[in-house]
Amino acid sequence: MKIGTNARKKQCKVWSRAGSVSLLCGRRKRKMAFPQPRPQLPQLPQHLLRTVDCQQGAIRAVRFNADGNYMLSCGSDKTLRLWSVSRGTLLKTYSGHGYEVLDADGSFDNSQICSCSSDKTVILWDVATGQVTRKLRGHAGKVNCVQFNEEATVIISGSIDCSVRCWDTRSRRPEPIQILDEARDSVSSVKVSEHELLTGSVDGRVRRYDLRVGQLYVDFINSPITCVCFSQDGQCTLSASLDGTVRLLDKSTGEMLGEYYGHKNNSYKLDCCLSNKDTHVLSCSEDGHVYCWDLVEGSLSFKLPVGKAVVQSLSFHPSEPRLLTAMEGRAQVWGAESEDKTEAE
Amino acid sequence: MVFLRFGIVFQQSFLNVEGRRLCGNMASDSEEEQDFVSFGTPLEPLEDDAPLKKPVPLHEQTVKDEKGRFQRFHGAFTGGFSAGYFNTVGSKEGWTPSTFVSSRQQKAAKVNARPEDFMDDEDFSEHGIAPREITTTEDFTSGRRDQIRDKARALISLVAPIPGDTLLEDLIAPARTSMGVELLRKMGWKEGQGVGPRAKRKPCTQKPDGGPRVYGCALPPNGSEESEEEDDYIPENVTFAPKDVTPINFTPKDDLHGLGYQGLDPQQALMGVSSTGHIDLFTLDSDRTSSLFGDGQIRRRAGMSGQAFGVGALEEDDDDIYHKDTLSNYDTVLEGEEPGDGLYGWTAPEQYNQKKKGSSKEFSYLGKILEGFTLASKPPEAKMIFPPPDLPRDYRPVHYFRPVVDVANASPIVAQALLASRGQMSTESQDKGRHQLESSQRRQLLGESALKGPTSVFDLLDTKDKERLESIRRLAEKRRTVAVLPEENQGPMVTVNTVSTTANFSQNALSSRFQSADSEQVLSAWSSPTADTARPFRPFEKNPEKQARYDLYISKLKQGQKDALESSLDPNMTEWERGRERDEFMRAAMLYKPSSSSLSSRFTRAKQDDDDDTVEVPRDQENDVDDKQAAVRMKMFGKLTRDTFEWHPDKLLCKRFNVPDPYPGSGLVGLPKVKRDKFSVFNFLTLSESDPGDKGNWCAATAPQGTPKTAQPGKKSRWDVSAQAEPPKDPLSKFLSMARNEASASQPDQSREATSTPTPESKPEPLEEEETRPPMDLFKAIFASSSDEKSSSSSEEESDNEENESGPEEMALTPHTILPPSSSAVPEVKPLATDPYLASCPPKDPCPQEEEFGPRLPPPSSSSEPKHQSSVSPLMEKVQKKKSKEKHKAKKEPRHKEKKHKKKTKTHKGKDKKKKKKKKQKKTEENTGSSGDSEDSSSPDDAVSTEELLKRLQSLRGKELQ
């Protein structure tokens, strides 16, 4: 460690910082015997842990992997990069797309990554080798969103060509298993749960395909949907739309449980998400902040000042209060305060 | 050598271990983040925004070998890289011979040039022409010796110019035995013996193989000696190994030796299995025989000897240089080979043949059986070999595939021929549209009985007239057949002697016009090489013969024939038909001319047929968007904003999601779809084409009324959208049936009753008559409907009540006032004119208001309009109507207009109420479309042309009978 810190140069700031953080953190945990003075209320990622300059153009999306230890950043320079979240080091660069990468998702076992791009393709990567396992062509336009199913046997991709395609990762079949072409406009967001597909479309509708029941539920929002997601308990759906509102809908009835506004979202496809314990709703904003509302009360809990530009994407850690945001070419990791303190010392 | 190899192996394994350790480090660094300590400075991540590497310019793209010399590549087929200096041994300066070395001081050492001296270093590399690699020497290879090589060597030695040349090498070669040999040895086999069970031999046959008799010079074997031997060694219980078999030599004879010349038998020499029991390699047969003959002295010669070798000066005796052959060495009789012969030649040895029968006992190889093995107690079952089946005499071992032709794509002629050949002419393919059927065919389909009375106009004619007509027709036919023949060759029509000269003239003009400009164009388009011939458009698919003609035409066009059109038409058709078809073909060819390949690759075929009247539409339709928008505005998410559809996931998708298939039996995927009437402009166009006369009439009738029918289809109203969801094939008949239902439910139309005051009791009459043909009075009533309608309409306004739907249609009455039909004078029509049944017949198309305001959203100012209208003069009415139309078009401000009307009109009591009611109704209507329809259909409209009404009645009748 000593050697590393002594020898560090200006350029490798990111790396060294990350290293020291992790080390100190470990030490401190061992030392601490007294209870933490912080209230045990839901911790929120309000403190900037580190900034990663991804150096891959504008970051179109940042995503945690399944266990939250790694980060995927989709760059506009056609590359996809895998980072260690805790140290901020680049682990791998996946290049093979023909145009900017728009979304990515990691499989449950971290062995595969799927990504989609403006070049109309969806690519399945092998994580370790960085090789393209499969290149799925078929969409007629750029592919906005991509998602693995639970067992990474199917890739669901939504495209500007109004269709959602379900690709089989098991077989070598070049065409999708099924094409869901119910959307009347570009599909901006897709999420997959155990047996459901949730799609948000620019035609202002949130569609939920229930495979078990064999039903399609269409909820009308009347404004282009930019992002949809399931709540952690799977009972609600969250949808952000271009009218600057994030709505929490009951999954079974379609009734609105909550409405969250205050942020600015008029033109860009911005992400929204729920916190790891479903206590808060977070959304990107075009004014350079990440807004966080209390889920039940609907009141604004805090605003994260990320920067001056549009916060393009965000991703919440699956189990810890940690947040990833992407603005321009940087990805930022936000966490609860403790680590921040140690860093300051 | 060995040590070296081991060393390398150790080193490699060490490297492996280290590599693994390195890998382990790399893998674990992501896992244990806490305790990870990283040393040194990490490499910077590759900077991608750094200036990209410039592509290497062409002149720098060179290939160099290991030593950095340029290599020029001149094509894989011309030898790959050039060698030396432009494939020469020279250099840039030219070829330099080796430098001169003066031999005065020192004698130039004699250089023994080897091929390697002229090779480049690359040639010795792995892929060079003389690769030098480190291999194990033969001493350390596995015990198996290269049998093929051995045999090859043996053969070489046989054929070698100096026979037995390799003998010495073989003799000195280290003993290498293969595993098989070792096994055999363990089982008691000895070299020189044959392989196989030991046999008890008759004494006479066991003559030891007395060396090869190849040399021929030997005297006939000494019988006495053999008898001696057999006397000596014949213990009863001794078995003998079979004799060794020399592999049959298939090498062609390409030397100049005599037949049967064999040189030394290497095997004999090597194995030393000669009669003498020791190796006597270097003695000739003659020596041996002489020794046998008794002098007993075996002399050895130093050096090589053989048939071809002369006798050296040092040799004492020069016996048998001039080798003589005797005939006794050759067989004089063709017979089975001697069993004792070592060389069996082409046939299997006789003894083996004999043995086949009772040889089950002969397993005794030797007492020695390998450890762990026993002899099989019973012999392995002989494989049953079944003879191949007898082939029928006319069997030909070639399979002919029945040609599989996609009937949809193949030309109809081919399809028909195929169908006919199979003997199953399917009628479905010939299924014609509704409009192609004749009335009698339709009747047959519907199961109706024929109408009474004359079926055709001809029935009404006199017999004399009929005859005249017949004669005219025959004459015409005759002329046509005459006319057709010359026309075939002449191309454009030039005949004048057809029935109607005027028609022909116009025809001529038309065809010549097409011929002049368009045909050239068409020809150039189709005969171009880029013409996509794979999937031609088939515009006349419904009429196979016509399509066939069209195909012929196209194919001729492609060949570039100028008279393609004329020659492909059917000469048996009438002139008029031919003319029409000519135009059609020309137009079709122009329209669907092949796009150039680059362009056509950008398009795909339509998923739905153009000429199909139906569209695949999702079965469940989404609820009204307006409602939802309103609900969203009120933030009433939930039922109002949610639509639920039946959705069929793919089977595989369910499998991948580990979910049971919700619809196990259904082969559907996605939303269930239904075939629906296509609601497009083209629908209307084809309709007018299908029965032009009727339509034309209709148009003529409606045109003066000022309802611009043609503008209708282009404009799409909300009603259109909903209609797309609901009306099946025949919306009109549906409306009618609805209306009938309502009528039968005895909900008398109040207003109608008011107007039809004269005979209210006539109302039930048509209900009874629904089954039968409507009475003549009915038609008359239709013809006379308008004049009194006008008067009644004004009275209707006063008696305005909850019949709100009747409002807008009233407007449509006005045209009749402007242009009353001529038949309105008929007096007796009155009673039936307003019977509810007829009145309930809704206007399908003629009324544009109806288009605008469908059942869903009734016009907001429905009742006000008529009132207003009634107060205006007829001329004004026209203007007013247009105005109102415009109003409906501009949907955004209906309320505003409504207010205006409110001001103008004075008495409306129920209006506001109505409005509210309608609003309430709106929702229910949307949910239950049928009710909306019924309400709509109950609205009367009298501004229908007589033809239209007739048509409706007919269709109604049709429905009834169904």
Question: Can you put this structure into words, describing what you see?
Answer:
The complex is a heterodimer of chains A (345) and B (962). Chain A is mainly beta. In chain A, 10% of the residues lie in helices and 47% in strands. In chain A, the strands form seven sheets. A four-stranded antiparallel β-sheet of chain A has the order 1-28-27-26. Chain A has a four-stranded antiparallel β-sheet with strand order 2-3-4-5, with no helix packed on it. In chain A, strand 14 and strand 15 form a beta hairpin. Chain A starts with a helix and ends with a helix. Chain B has 39 helices and five strands. In chain B, a hairpin with a 5-residue loop joins strand 1 and strand 2. The N terminus of chain B is likely disordered. At the A-B interface, helix 1, helix 2, strand 5, strand 13 and strand 17 of A face helix 18, strand 4 and helix 19 of B. Strand 17 of chain A pairs antiparallel with strand 4 of chain B.
Write a brief caption for the model.
By secondary structure, chain A is mainly beta. Chain A is built from three helices and 28 strands.
List the defining traits of the structure above:
heterodimer; A: 345 residues; mainly beta; four-stranded antiparallel beta sheet; 3 helices; 28 strands; disordered C terminus; B: 962 residues; mainly alpha; two-stranded antiparallel ribbon; 2% strand
Provide the low-confidence segments of chain A as ranges. 1-31, 340-345
Task: Kindly report the greatest chain-chain contact and the residue count on each side.
Answer: A-B, 65 and 51 residues
The overall strand count of chain A is: 28
N-C termini distance of chain A? 17 Å
Strand arrangement, major sheet of chain A: 1-28-27-26
Figure out the total of helices of chain B.
39
Largest sheet of chain A: 4 strands, antiparallel
C-alpha geometry of chain B: elongated
* Total strands of chain B: 5
Question: Whole-number average pLDDT of chain A?
Answer: 83
**SSE class of chain A:** mainly beta
Binned strand content of chain B: under 5%
Low-confidence stretches of chain B: 1-32, 203-232, 272-306, 339-346, 352-364, 423-431, 485-517, 529-535, 686-732, 743-771, 785-943
Total helices of chain A: the number is: 3
Largest sheet descriptor of chain B: 2 strands, antiparallel
Alpha-carbon Rg of chain B, integer: 55 Å
- What structural class should be given to the helix and strand makeup of chain B? mainly alpha
